[in-house]
Write a structure and sequence with these properties.
heterodimer, A: mainly beta, seven-stranded mixed β-sheet, globular, B: mainly beta, 57% strand
């Protein structure tokens, strides 16, 4: 099974900061990686799919990059509404090999 | 409005059963793969199961194989999760989600683009 790790597990940042979150897969997953944002008590929201494609309606301050095993989510200028937990998700060899989420990265206020 | 609404959660004793439902509206339900994803209290997201548009293919995370069954009724625009032999570790908020999938020869997975609000399952004596 493909395992996903994220770093850091948490980050404290200020409004306007540039924030980068890293996700690593235990084996190559091409570009089959998505990023989600989840706020407390709410369902996750899709931000990025196929590693670097911005989901419709998501602000352009969010961007994704990477392929193979190493991926990043960047928030170019952190806004108050961006304080949340972010998860990566892989779906390589969909559907037979299942889907795996990373453990999450919490972005909180410095 | 595109919407998913889960129901059926509750308190159940270990070893018991529960059936979750997810009602879809605002899109052509029969055209989409669908998933169940759960989140234990204070923990991260875990994919549980998914099902193909016509119900002919179903896949599960190892921890629920043989205990949970995913199904759908396209005529009723509904997704289901039958959960048997429940354990304390199955306690979680359960979300249904729409899988955005393209297919030529191979599948192309574009993420879970619509989510329900979740329903809470508590397994405890």
């Amino acid at each position: 099974d493909i395992q996903m790790t994220q770093s850091p597990s948490s980050v404290s940042a200020s409004v306007g900061d540039r924030v980068t979150i890293t996700c690593r897969a235990s084996q190559g997953i091409s570009s089959w990686l998505a990023w989600y944002q989840q706020k407390p008590g709410k369902a996750p929201k899709l931000l990025i799919y196929a590693a670097s494609s911005l989901q419709s309606g998501v602000p352009s301050r969010f961007s994704g990059s990477g392929s193979g095993t190493d991926f990043t989510l960047t928030i170019s200028s952190l806004q108050p509404e961006d304080f949340a937990t972010y998860y990566c998700q892989q779906a390589n060899s969909f559907p037979s090999r299942g889907i795996t989420f990373g453990p999450g990265t919490k972005v909180d206020i410095k | 409005e595109v919407q998913l609404v889960e129901s059926g959660g509750g308190l159940v004793q270990p070893g018991g059963s529960l059936r979750l439902s997810c009602a879809a509206s605002g899109f052509t339900f029969s055209s989409y793969w669908m998933s169940w994803v759960r989140q234990a209290p204070g923990k991260g997201l875990e994919w549980v199961a998914n099902i193909k548009q016509d119900g002919s293919e179903k896949y599960y995370v190892d921890s629920v194989k043989g205990r949970f069954t995913i199904s759908r009724d396209n005529a009723k625009n509904s997704l289901y999760l039958q959960m048997n032999s429940l354990r304390a570790e199955d306690t979680a908020v359960y979300y249904c989600a729409r899988d955005a999938v393209g297919q030529l020869v191979d599948y192309y997975y574009y993420g879970m683009d619509v989510w329900g609000q979740g329903t809470t399952v508590t397994v405890s004596s």
